[in-house]
Amino acid sequence: MENTIPDENPSLSRRQLLNFLTGAAVAVTTGSALYPLAQFFVPPRKVAAGGGILAKDQLGNPIPASQILAEPPGTRALIAGLAGEPTYLTLKTEGSLSPMGIVDHCTHLGCTFPWNPMDQQFQCPCHGSLYDPDGKVVRGPAPLPLKLVHVAVKDDAIWIYPWNETDPRTGKSPWWV
Ligand code: FES
Fold it and tell me: What CATH number has the domain bearing residue 146?
């Protein structure tokens, strides 16, 4: 029996098919490698002009404004704000949110803290710092007032924006900018 390998070049159509398949494989591989890189430079959706983001719950789902606005005045609602920072929103009057949100990071060593409605204070459990309802220090060792963010309700969404202007509690530039 004679085994012979044809020594002529593959036919033109076969060569074109191989070139096409090779090119397609390279394109798919390159595309899948570059896609995450390209995504890095695309701004995330749900970011408004001015760096605003939607207030989210602990699972990362946007919180409908109607859900929080249904709470009684004086309620403090904890949401995930800018960069996921836990942030307190305040029901000022029935159906309206304070435009000032307070970030739940103690300015001493960064502990999170609860709102105590009986004492009307934020009370840090780590070293005993106390803050008034606007986030001003009542008792240290916390050295600075709590960080602020802007809060705005549009339709049924709650938007959180960076606070870069004067801190109304001190009359000075915010320490966090
Ligand atoms: S971290 Fe809050 S008092 Fe120390």
Answer: 2.102.10.10
- Say yes or no: CB of residue 14 within 6 Å of ligand 1: no
- DSSP secondary-structure letter at 31? H
The three-class DSSP label of residue 38 is helix
Total count of domains within the chain:
2
Residue 55, domain extent: 47-162
160 burial level (CB within 10 Å; 0-12, 13-18, 19+): buried
* 111-154 per-position pLDDT tens digit: 999 999 999 999 999 999 999 999 999 999 999 999 999 999 99
Closest-CA residue, ligand 1 atom 3, reads 127
Can you read off the two tokens belonging to residue 94?
Answer: 């029935």
Residues 6 or more apart whose Cβ sits within 8 Å of residue 164: 174, 177
